[in-house]
Prior knowledge:
Blueprint: H1 18-21, E1 26-29, E2 33-34, E3 56-61, H2 65-80, E4 95-102, E5 105-114, H3 123-135, E6 140-148, H4 155-172, E7 177-182, H5 187-194, E8 197-198, E9 203-205, E10 210-218, H6 219-229, H7 249-261
Parallel strand pairs: 6-7
Antiparallel strand pairs: 1-2, 1-3, 3-4, 4-5, 5-6, 7-10, 8-10, 9-10
Amino acid sequence: MLEISKLPFGIKNRSKDPDEWDKTIVAFQSPYRLKDLCIDQSQVAANTEVRVSKEEFKVRLATNDDRRKSASLLIEKMYSWRGYETDALARNPNKITLVAYQTDKVVGTLTLGLDSAKGMVVDELYKTEADQLRAEGRRLCDITRLAVDQEIKSKDVLAALFHLSFIYGRNIHQATDFLIEVNPRHMLFYQRMLGFEPYGEEKTCPRVNAPAVLLRLNLEHADAQIIEYGGLGASATGVKSIYPYFFSRNDESGITQRLLRGD
């Protein structure tokens, strides 16, 4: 696991105005090149601004109603054409919703659910499977509400959302496994692109009124893939997964430290 300071992540430790927490987590260009948001901000002049190019994307936390509404609209857009039913995102202290922007347009979103006494979304259908992992001492998160605008062809956006969920889940909250429910016809994508493995039989998910199967990702596998391929992009010839489009290990460390400090 990435060596980081053992500081708790959380709202309790914010010493700054809450609006400062709403700023961009990362800004990057496609093809991937991380902007200078991972360096010590004390090294940057107070009036310095990051120039935004047409290929630049930013990922922010959905910490207010406007961002949750924007993410909900994208989810509805991407799910409705498949006939899936969805509810609007709501504030939940055990969920971290990431929103990717191209300029002011929302182009991607993902929600990471932290395991708690209230359980996770996957417990509705797959509590037995989740409880088995809990009994083995595994620490779980689930991924829900994943949507990327079809007009965005960049693999970097999807990779950034997954990598930031990895940073929050593993590096900050010490999770060992991600669980996700997917339509059976999408299983192969998650297996090839991210290394998920089937972990539950097919069922009907009442939330979207569609078939679902539970997949599990051991985060040790993801960590090893990030170390080997992260930041290589298209230069990683012959690699079928999306891990080359993740951030580099050094950038991951910088992002993690910034989030822990609450910068």
